[in-house]
Task: inverse folding
């Protein structure tokens, strides 16, 4: 907010020096916890995410550019609540929460309720966000993140996060969220609903892609027309899910 | 507040009265203008420095946050009077146009070669993805660094 000259606070408290906030780990039950000072670069190089959380693994190397990834953090990105931020979509698709801590203790806020609008989040003035929590998967986690950008490091023209938990041949849980196609991160719940409780097929992938495109609220700007962006939501949703279907078929 | 840090191997102390960046501290207070001030938003990479071993945009680090840190700027990337092998390679290939982005490119490339002595063109492009050359002289920069006999340490 300071770099955008939106804020000029009289006093700042540096949370970088608070010890033990730079972790990311997987609990025994599969819950993933990311501390407030864990950098994008830590997640990009993580050996945990590839197998335990593929949607996060796909997004980590696409955030901004390598220099920015050295300092920026997942929790900071979600707090920043930029509609073009990648992590808020990934966390929304995963039904993740932010843990806020204040003088009266800790509370958990679902990311979809935490991100209120452009650069606005649900933290009270005397709270800080200390952790992001991705809940235990209800099966084998699979998914992806795709982002269209004019050049590496530019903000997303369109981004789509897809996260599913497989239970046998069925989709046990699905989440789809959209980056940069509305005034805030968009949860494409109707699209995700189409996938839940049945196997992935070309038909329901097509339906989900259509519903994700309908959920988008893009505006025409210098990055592209609204129609183009909506089409890219359709393409990316379908491309991620088709890739998952293909790898499922290959494994069978 | 008083900020104490090490810059290019020298201990320095500065008084910071404003929410200034590490870049402001380096340029205005310490007289090190090699790191450039351009976008001031982490977009262009022209202010790249190495902070405690990590390549960062010094415009996005508050000066106060650098307290107790070790910083290497383009001025300290090589021995006095000598060129860093990355500078040598870019000089030889003429991989400089207006020169504004060059210090940031040099620091980012030196950081790359310190961990990867033989990067491919793709790896060079990825490592320099945060550094914008407004002259669009990327081809010469990548060619200068690709296959260069660069043994770097920092």
Result:
């Amino acid at each position: 907010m300071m770099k955008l000259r939106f804020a000029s606070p009289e006093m700042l408290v540096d949370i970088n020096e608070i010890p033990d906030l730079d972790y990311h780990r997987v609990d025994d039950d599969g819950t993933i916890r990311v501390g407030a000072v864990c950098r994008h670069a830590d997640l990009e190089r993580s050996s945990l995410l590839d197998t335990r959380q593929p949607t996060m693994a796909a997004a980590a190397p696409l955030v901004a550019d390598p220099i920015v990834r050295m300092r920026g953090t997942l929790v900071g990105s979600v707090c920043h609540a930029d509609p073009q931020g990648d992590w808020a979509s990934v966390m929304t698709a995963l039904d993740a929460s932010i843990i806020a801590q204040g003088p009266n203790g800790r509370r958990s806020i679902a990311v979809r309720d935490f991100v209120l609008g452009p650069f606005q989040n649900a933290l009270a003035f005397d709270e800080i966000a200390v952790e992001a929590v991705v809940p235990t998967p209800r099966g084998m986690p699979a998914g992806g993140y795709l982002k269209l950008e004019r050049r590496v490091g530019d903000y997303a023209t369109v981004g789509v996060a897809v996260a599913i938990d497989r239970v046998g041949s069925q989709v046990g849980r699905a989440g789809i969220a959209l980056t940069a196609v509305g005034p805030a991160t968009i949860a494409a719940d109707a699209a995700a609903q189409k996938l839940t409780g049945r196997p992935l097929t070309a038909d329901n992938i097509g339906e989900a892609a259509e519903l994700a495109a309908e959920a988008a609220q893009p505006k025409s700007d210098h990055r592209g027309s609204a129609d183009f962006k909506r089409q890219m939501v359709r393409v990316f949703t379908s491309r991620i899910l088709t890739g998952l279907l293909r790898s499922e078929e290959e494994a069978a | 507040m008083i900020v104490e840090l090490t810059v290019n191997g020298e201990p320095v102390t500065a008084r910071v009265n404003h929410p200034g960046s590490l870049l402001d501290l380096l340029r205005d207070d310490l007289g090190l203008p090699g790191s450039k001030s351009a976008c001031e938003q982490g977009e262009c990479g022209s202010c790249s420095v190495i902070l405690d071993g990590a390549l960062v945009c010094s415009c996005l680090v508050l000066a106060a946050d650098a307290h107790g840190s070790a910083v290497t700027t383009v001025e300290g990337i090589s021995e006095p009077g000598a060129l860093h092998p990355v500078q040598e390679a870019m000089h030889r290939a003429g991989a400089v146009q207006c020169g504004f982005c060059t210090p940031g490119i040099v620091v980012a490339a030196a950081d790359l070669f310190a961990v990867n002595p033989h990067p491919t063109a793709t790896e060079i492009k990825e490592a320099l993805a945060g550094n914008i050359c407004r002259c669009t002289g990327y081809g010469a920069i990548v060619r200068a660094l690709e296959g260069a006999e660069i043994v770097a340490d920092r």
